[in-house]
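User: Sequence in, structure out. Go.
Assistant: Echoing your sequence, followed by the structure tokens.
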Amino acid sequence: MDPDLGIVCDQQGAQSHVSLSGRITIDSSPDVRLALLQRLGSPDCQSLTLDLCGVSYIDTSGLAILLEILKAARTQGKTFYISGLRERPRYLLETTRLLPLFTEVSRQTSSSPESQL
């Protein structure tokens, strides 16, 4: 696991919450991918919220993972939310025109994203 990356997972009922911290780069993205796919593949997980508040940087490999997780969630009939986007990661998602593909929730309610719908 990349020492510059922090991954914390939490499960409450059918809702999974993953908090990331550090930088998502070509070096750390395999760990992020594995953690998210494992969490999403759990039978207990019907909704996955990814908290990116602690992420200061995402490169294109990180974007690819976000898209892969979104596609996997939709294929499995599960929901995928992102929260806590900081300025640089948000800018990358906006300039690539990918941000509208994701459902963004506020950090305060990220443990119960359905209340945002």
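User: And one key feature?
Assistant: The first strand starts at residue 5 and ends at 12.
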